[in-house]
Structures are given as C-alpha cells and as structure tokens.
C-alpha cells in the first residue's frame, strides 16, 4: 500500500515535471521563434507590399502557383451544352477576330485570364490546337480550375487571379453557379464564368438561378506571371475577369516591365467606357481595332496592321468612333470649341 502510493506519487511527480519541462521549453521556443518571425515579418510589412518582380514573389509563383503544360492528348470534352455557349455572348465575334488576326501565325504565346474550364467559350483553344501556340491560362475558381486541369491543355495554368493592384495580394473571390434543382436551360459554365473579385461586383440581377460561394484567392500582377515564365512577348492577352480589366491593364501600362503585348482582347460589360483609360491606352500606343461588347486593341505599328483586311476594319472602327463622337458632342460644346 505504502510502496504503491510512493511509486504512484513519484510517477505522478516525474510526469508532472516532464510535462512542465516540455511546456516551458515549448513556450520558450514558441516565443523566441514567433518573436523573431513577427519582428521580421512586421518589419517587412512595414516597408510596403512586395514588388511584382521581387525574386521572392517570382519564386513562390513558380513553385506554388504555376502548373506546367501537359504533353498528353487532349481529353474529349463534349458535355451536352458545350456548343450552346458558342452562339451566345460575344464568343463568335471574338473568335472571328482571333482567326482573322492570327491564322497562319504559328507558335505564338497567349495569356487568357478567366480561362474557365479551358474549353467553354475559350478564346485560345483554337490557337493552341491549330496554330501550335503555347501560353498561360489563369483561373481563380477552384471548381473551374479542376475541370481545366482535366482538359490537359498544352499551356501553363495558374489557380490564381490577376491582381487589380500593382503588388501581389489575397482577395475574396465570388463564384457563381446554377442553383441545385434549377430548370434553367443554359450551360452551367455560363454561370460559372461570372466569378469576380468581391470588390469588383457587377450587377447580375438577370441571373435568377444564381448561387454564390466565396473563397480566398491569391492574386499576382500581370507582370509577375510574365517574369516568372521568362516571357517578353505576348501575342494575345485575353481578359475576361468580370470587372477588374481596366485596373489590370492600367497597372501593366504603368509598369516598366519591358514586356511587349501585341493584341489585347478585353471584355467590358459596362455601358460607358472609361475615357481616362482609353486615353491611357492610346498614350501607350494601343489602337482600338474593333469594339462590340468587347474591345480589341492592337499595338501601334504591329505587323498585323499591315494586313489589308485588318486595315479595312481599322478604317471602319475609326470612322464609326468619329461619328459617335460628333453625335455625342452637344451643340454648345461644339460651338465653344470653335
Ligand atoms: C510547336 O511548337 C513547339 C515549341 O513551342 C515546337 O517545338 C514544335 O516543333 C512545334 N510543332 C509544330 C508542328 O510546328
Ligand atoms: C526562367 O528563368 C529562370 C532563371 O533563369 C529559371 O530558373 C526558370 O526555370 C525559368 N522558367 C521558365 C518557365 O522557363
Ligand atoms: C459642329 O461644327 C461643325 C463645323 O463647325 C459642323 O459641321 C457640325 O455639324 C457641328 N456638329 C453639331 C453636332 O452641331
């Protein structure tokens, strides 16, 4: 009895001592490390966000957020509604222009942001399959990205979003999908294509079967991706990112990255185009080639502009813009200018 209680007492004592020892050690290590880390992290944060081309940013992007092109056969992709989308939206219009600008142009490089599943309303699949292009597909929505990976496209892909700021950041991303049990006759991908940053919400009130979910997504400035992939010429940049297009392009124009982007296709769902943005594009040598619901810009003096059919389109667009400008200017402003 006595021996037993002594023993259990000493065992208890030893256990307690051991636990206490570990606890003290743990707390010490925790405070030392966290203390140091916090100090470093805090100091780093105080100096401001990391630059788009900071080596640390590029390393993380390369190692964690870029999946290499797949050298495998494409997966068949026919889900029933796949062709529905091709008649809607502005896909036929954009596709027409991409073929007109780039048929016969092999081995180019594209960036498509808002890549969706890599097939539905894809602006770049034709270039990749028929013209042997490579490129980068950016898709922030996790479910879309999973589908994209299954298609086995021969381009880089990234489960991120292009930052609307000039530095990397995390953002809340809003995904749209069709409500379960909805009877709506539209491709689910059409809904899934409306994901956007929380801050850049656009009115989707026409989406009566809309179901929203939220996730945290890492974003990088456009030039971070290009630097990480060592790309200096982009033949086509296709932006369909539901609201942050202007910010993304403005940041690119303001950077001195030395990257040359030849053609930009930009979705624009608002009624009135930002005049300041258009002036900035012009100032940086981008010519508006065509506009519908979307805008197509070409860099001034690009060899594409030497094609007769492209010159013809440009003439038409320029004439129409001049006509619209004269219609919009009020008699007072007209007379005051003269
Ligand atoms: C396609 O492009 C790759 C480089 O991206 C090149 O190595 C290959 O030869 C090209 N294939 C054809 C058929 O042009
Ligand atoms: C880009 O260049 C860096 C440094 O030269 C290299 O480490 C990296 O692998 C290259 N990345 C690609 C995608 O070519
Ligand atoms: C503006 O002035 C020009 C010439 O002064 C004239 O031809 C044109 O019709 C005027 N436009 C409007 C909208 O009044």
Automatic annotation (TrEMBL):
The keyword Transmembrane applies. Keywords: Membrane, Transmembrane, Transmembrane helix. The chain crosses the membrane at residues 12-36. Residues 113-287 form the Methyltransferase FkbM domain. Pfam families: Methyltransf_21. InterPro entries: EGF_Rcpt_Signaling_Reg, FkbM_mtfrase, SAM-dependent_MTases_sf. The keyword Membrane applies. GO terms for cellular component: endoplasmic reticulum membrane; Golgi apparatus; late endosome membrane; plasma membrane. GO terms for biological process: endoplasmic reticulum to Golgi vesicle-mediated transport; endosomal transport. This is Methyltransferase FkbM domain-containing protein. It comes from Petrolisthes cinctipes (Flat porcelain crab).
């Amino acid at each position: 009895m006595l021996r037993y209680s002594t023993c259990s007492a000493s065992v208890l004592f030893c256990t307690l001592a051991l636990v206490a020892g570990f606890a003290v050690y743990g707390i010490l290590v925790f405070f030392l490390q966290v203390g140091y880390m916090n100090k470093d992290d805090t100091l780093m944060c105080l100096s401001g966000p990391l630059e788009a081309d900071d080596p640390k940013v590029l390393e993380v992007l390369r190692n964690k957020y870029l999946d290499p092109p797949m050298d495998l056969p494409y997966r068949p992709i026919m889900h029933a509604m796949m062709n529905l989308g091709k008649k809607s939206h502005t896909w036929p219009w954009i596709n027409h222009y991409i073929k007109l600008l780039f048929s016969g142009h092999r081995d180019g490089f594209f960036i498509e942001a808002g890549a969706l599943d890599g097939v539905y309303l894809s602006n770049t699949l034709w270039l990749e399959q028929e013209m042997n292009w490579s490129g980068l597909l950016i898709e922030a929505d996790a479910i879309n990205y999973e589908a994209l990976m299954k298609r086995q496209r021969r381009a880089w892909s990234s489960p991120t979003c292009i930052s609307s700021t000039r530095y990397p950041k995390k953002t809340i991303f809003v995904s749209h999908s069709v409500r379960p049990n909805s009877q709506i006759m539209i491709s689910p991908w059409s809904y899934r294509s409306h994901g956007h940053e929380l801050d850049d919400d656009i009115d989707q009130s026409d989406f009566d079967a809309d179901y929203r979910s939220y996730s945290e997504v890492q974003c990088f400035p456009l030039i971070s991706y290009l630097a990480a992939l060592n790309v200096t010429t982009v033949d086509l940049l296709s932006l369909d990112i539901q609201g942050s297009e202007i910010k993304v392009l403005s940041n690119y124009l303001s950077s001195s990255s030395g990257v040359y982007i030849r053609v930009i296709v930009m979705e624009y769902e608002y009624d009135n185009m930002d005049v300041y943005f258009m002036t900035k594009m012009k100032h940086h040598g981008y010519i508006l080639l065509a506009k519908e619901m979307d805008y197509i810009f070409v860099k001034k003096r690009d060899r594409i502009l030497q094609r007769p059919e492209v010159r013809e389109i440009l003439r038409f667009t320029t004439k129409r813009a001049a006509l619209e400008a004269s219609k919009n200017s009020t008699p007072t402003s007209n007379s005051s200018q003269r």
